[in-house]
Amino acid sequence: MGKKGQTRIAMWLFSEMRNSRCRPGTSVYNSLITAHLHSKDKSKALSKALGYFEKMKVTERCKPSIVTYNILL
């Protein structure tokens, strides 16, 4: 989904996961970041991706992996 730019579906799945009390991990955040960076709305893509990157580190206390940093490059 991420590389296809299907941001809405990725966001819906993320919400469903959180509503089910499932704690998202690094790979889930990596997918969300990727989805935003490949979205059609380029004007907001980077800010949303960086927002999830910060949320990942602070709220969920997930450690970004080398893959995370490569996605952001």
Characterize the structure shown:
With 73 residues, the protein is mainly alpha-helical. Helices cover 67% and strands 0% of the residues. It is built from four helices and no strands. Helix 1 (7-19) runs antiparallel to helix 2 (26-37), helix 2 packs antiparallel against helix 3 and helix 2 packs parallel to helix 4 (66-72). It is globular and about 30 Å long. The chain starts with 6 loop residues before the first helix and ends with a helix. 23% of the residues are buried.
Order of helices and strands: HHHH
H/I helix tally: 4
What value does the Rg take, in angstroms? Answer: 11 Å
Could you give a short account of the major beta sheet? none
Task: Give the percentage of residues in beta strands.
Answer: under 5%
- What class, by secondary structure content? mainly alpha
The overall average pLDDT, rounded, is: 84
Helix content estimate? 55-70%
The residue ranges in which pLDDT falls below 50 over 5 or more consecutive positions are none
CA distance, first residue to last residue: 19 Å
What general outline do the C-alpha atoms trace? Answer: globular
